[in-house]
Amino acid sequence: MDQSLEIYNQMDWWNPRHSLLRMAALKFNYFHEKIGRLDGLSVLDVGCGGGIIAEELAKRGANVTGIDLSERALQIARDHAATSGLRIRYQLGKAEELPVADGHFDAVVCADCLEHVDDVGHVIGQISRVLKAGGAFCYDTFNRNLLSKVLIAWLLDRRLRREYRSLNVSEQAYAVHDWHKFIKPQELTLLMARHGLVSREIEGIRPVGFRDGGFELKIGGNPKVAYIGYATKQM
Prior knowledge:
Structural class: alpha/beta
Number of helices: 7
Distance between the termini: 44 Å
Oligomer: single chain
Shape: globular
């Protein structure tokens, strides 16, 4: 079963049942803590989708640019931001070829994206290019090992396919994730170092319960399946 990004063209992003929407607060709070005060900062959201994280950044006063491959997801993001009274710049683009200037952003966030790109090394290079010296790069993704293959690529994807069909996704013959694109923390650390990004912290993301049809997650512990972290660009 091949991975397909077509699901993100069809998705009802702001439906309360959407798992990404339910997990957004946990990830945003971590990113906010590591970046610090957001008011007045220029922040890039790579793989912004329907704008879930971008809106949280904008609500705290950041000047946000969101970039995504899906024009339909971007239009949903624009419409929702307008309804919410938020000014966010959304732009079509690839993570491997970010259509923004060098050294422009104080921070870059990349949530639920690195495990979908074709060339993660190229993406890290682009993120470093657009960051100011001393800027923060915040991300989350999946480790690549047998456990993540079973829990994410097999079991979680089966559940997500059911969930996404309930969110207006008609396509059924797809995999949400391609396990071969998962990246080990040590691999990501080395890639970041090659591009002048110093890894500051990596924490595991683990389920601690199940409520209202979705998993409750907690940050901390071994990054053996999913992990979150941040790095800073060398001065």
